[in-house]
Structures are given as C-alpha cells and as structure tokens.
Design brief:
This protein has about 425 residues and is mainly alpha-helical. It has one domain. The protein has a two-stranded antiparallel ribbon. Helix 7 packs across helix 18 and helix 11 runs antiparallel to helix 17. The longest helix is centred in the last third of the chain and has 34 residues. The protein is globular, with a radius of gyration of 24 Å.
C-alpha cells in the first residue's frame, strides 16, 4: 500500500503523524538519559527520513535559515581551537543534526499539530515521572523537591510549565470542538501538581508572566493595526521603566523572597562570576563547544566539588549567555542572542504590524518563556533538549513558504475572485438579462 506524501509532510493533512513525531521527540528529550540511545535514534527516525519524501519542500527559502546554519557551522568549526576537540566534535555533530530535525519539523508540522503532540508527549512524560516518584534534596538551600524521573527539579518544572502553557493556548486559539476541554484537563492537572511539588522557582515565576502577556496579545486582535502599534510601543516602554525601577527599589529581592530565593539565586551569581572569569581567558572564540565541563579539567572539577555534583556531569553556569561566552566566546554569544531576538521580534511583529495570527502568538509566548529562563538556565545550547528544539522550530516558522501551484485550472470561485467578480452563482437566481437591463 502506497502512503500519500501529504499524510507525512503536508502541515494541513499530517496532524496524526506530526503529533506522533512531536510526542516521540518530547519523550526522547526527557528520558534519553534513562533509556539510552534508542530514544535518540527514534527522534531521528521520525524527522530525518521526511527529507527523502519531498526534498524540494526543504530547499524552498533555505536562505531564510542562514543565521542558525551559520551558528551551527561556527559550533562545528570550534573543534579547531577546542581544549577538548573530541568532545566538541561529537557534541557539535549532535547539535547540528538536532537543528536539522527542528528545521524538518518546522517545514512539515503546523503550530496546532506541534501543540497537540506536545500535550500528548508531556502527559506521558509526567505520568512516568509520577510513577517513578523520586525526590531529591537540594544541598544548597536545604529543600526537598520532587524530581520524578528527571535529574533536577528545574527540568521537571520546565515540563510542567510547558504543559500548562500549551493547554491554555490550545484551548484559547487552536481547539476544535468541546472535546478539546476534556483532552486538556488531565494535562493541566498533572502539570500544575508537578509544578507545585517540584518547587521550581523559575518555572513558577515565568509561566504566569507569559500567560498574562499572551492574554494581552489576544486582546489586540480586537484592535486595528494602528492601535496595536501604539499599544506595543507604549507597553515596551513601560516594561523597561518597571524593570529599572524594580531593580533600584529592591523589588527583585522581594519577588525572589516569595519563591524562597535570595539575591544570590542559590549560588547562581557565584557561578556567573566564575564563568565570566573563565571567559576572559579566551574572550573572542571561547574554549570550544562543550569543552569546559569535561572530566579531568581542573576548573570543572573544582566547581563540581563546590556544588556537590558527585556525578560530575550535567552541570552548567545557569545562564545561557555566560555559558556561550565561556564555550564560544563573544562571537558565539552574539549569535545566540541574535537568534533569540530575531525569533522574538519576527513573531511579535507579525501580530502587531501585520495580520493577526494565532500561530505567531503561540510561538511568541514560547520564545518569551525561553528568554526568561535563558538568564538562569541553559536550555538552547545543547542537543536533544526541549528548549533548543522549540527555539529553532519557532525561528524556522518565520519563513512563509509560497503556496504550491497545482496543474489543474482554478475553480470558478477562485477565477471570479481573481477578476474581482462576485462569487458563483453570479446572478443569485435571477436571469442574466435582468442584470444587463
């Protein structure tokens, strides 16, 4: 039996396969450490073979992906100055292939299908974590937190925040019928419960802010394009003013106190200082991609020991831009920031300055969530991570592909619309002579 290509690569018809592929990807991102390479192979298997199905689809407007491709090339070339070239080569190839999978997903999967697949994947990920039911003590702040099948509370907290976010936007913008409410209730309940018991301050603080922003963007649909621009400019100015005032009046410490944090962010500021000092040794190019946290290197071993990381793996500077400065230098950090800002501006400009689109609202919310987390976590610089997949998916979705023209003639309605004539039937039941009279 021959399967039509459209059921695999057409965003309008492949909702079943697309949702399945996204769900498999989320499972791989979450538990590849537990189940091994078989999940990574499954992740590749659901995306990369689609290139062979319709390679022309992926060649259209390939130039629009120049910035991520340039960054991926820079990451690969860092092997030539890396202090751990073997580690850099392996991880760089993984990162490049990870970006390629996100590119294929963006060209074949709609935002609605992405949301459906994310809801399914997140539901099973959370169910498995609840089944494992592991708790872990944070030796730095003395708290006892739920981690499930993950290695840290921040990882499962991120999954919980995504579950709440995708549930809300699905019901608000993308649902079709009342059945959607029934399907999203389990995901919302599980996500909220996990978010609470994990005590992830970053996730609990970021998700309300993102949902409030999405609500404001949803209300702009009722306004004309001119008023959207004015409100956007005024709102952006107010955000800057509020941020400056909050820092000067000490409101930031008050907010951190609500979530049980101090001004050091549980040792993160010390890590940032250490990262900045390390970046000064090679400020332009860095020490090489993934070449700092390597077993046997003195600085990495010292920080692992100071933060009680007995596994000596899976640690970072808890800041995307500090991590980029250390590994890829000022050049790489600027590229990462440009990708983030280009994606953010691309989607918000579509909503504010062009025709209002729910898909851009959804992806803008995802990017804002990643932006907030980028200052305290590292989720867009590593392969096989949910954050990096979503960022590159959102970036590649900025390219508006032209509609493929078919060989057959247009319908009567399409031909009439092109000539500016009323839709068929032209005479609405009246004889043509009556119109001509």
């Amino acid at each position: 039996m021959k399967i039509p290509k459209s059921l695999l690569v057409d965003p309008e018809k492949n909702s079943v396969y697309g949702a399945f592929a996204v769900a498999v990807s989320i499972w791989a991102f979450s538990y590849s450490v537990i189940f091994g390479q078989v999940l990574i192979l499954a992740y590749y298997a659901v995306w990369l073979p689609l290139i062979m199905v319709d390679y022309r689809r992926f060649l259209r407007q390939l130039s629009s992906a120049w910035l991520p491709l340039l960054f991926a090339a820079y990451v690969c070339f860092s092997i030539f100055w890396s202090q751990a070239p073997g580690v850099t080569a392996r991880t760089a190839i993984q990162y490049l292939s990870h970006i390629a999978c996100a590119y294929v997903a963006a060209r074949t999967v709609s935002v609605r299908t992405l949301t459906l697949g994310a809801l399914v994947g997140i539901f099973f990920v959370l169910v498995y974590s609840l089944k494992v039911g592991a708790y872990s003590e944070d030796v730095l702040d003395g708290t006892y937190n739920f981690v499930g099948a993950f290695a840290s509370k921040n990882q499962i907290g991120f999954i919980g925040s995504l579950g709440i976010y995708f549930s809300v936007v699905f019901l608000a913008f993308l649902r079709r019928g009342r059945l959607s409410f029934i399907l999203t209730v389990p995901v919302v309940l599980l996500s909220a419960y996990v978010l609470i018991v994990s005590h992830s301050a970053t996730s609990m603080a970021s998700i309300p802010a993102v949902l409030a922003l999405i609500a404001l963007l949803a209300m702009t649909k009722l306004l004309s394009r001119r008023y959207r621009r004015v409100i956007f400019l005024v709102g952006a100015g107010l955000v800057v003013v509020v941020a400056v005032v909050s820092l000067n009046l000490g409101l930031m410490d008050f907010v951190l106190g609500i979530f049980g944090k101090d001004s050091t962010l549980t040792g993160r500021t010390y890590l940032w200082e250490q990262g900045w000092n390390a970046a000064q040794r090679s400020p332009i190019l860095g020490v090489g991609y993934a070449a700092y946290w390597v077993q046997g290197f003195a600085e990495a071993e010292r920080l692992w020991n100071e933060f009680y990381i007995t596994t000596r793996t899976g640690f970072h500077f808890h800041n995307t831009y500090v991590e980029a400065l250390v590994e890829l230098g000022f050049t790489g950090a600027v590229m990462v920031a440009l990708i983030m800002l280009r994606t953010l501006y691309g989607h918000v400009s579509t909503v504010i300055f062009k025709a209002w689109q729910a898909e851009s609202v959804v992806l803008f919310g995802v990017m804002v969530l990643l932006l907030i987390r980028s200052f305290v976590e590292v989720e867009i610089l590593n392969p096989y991570i949910m954050g990096s997949f979503l960022m590159y998916f959102s970036y590649f979705k900025l390219a508006r592909l032209p509609v493929t023209r078919t060989r057959w003639a247009p319908t009567f309605e399409q031909a009439d619309a092109a000539r500016g004539e009323p839709a068929w039937p032209r005479h609405h039941g009246r004889p043509a002579a009556a119109d001509q009279a």
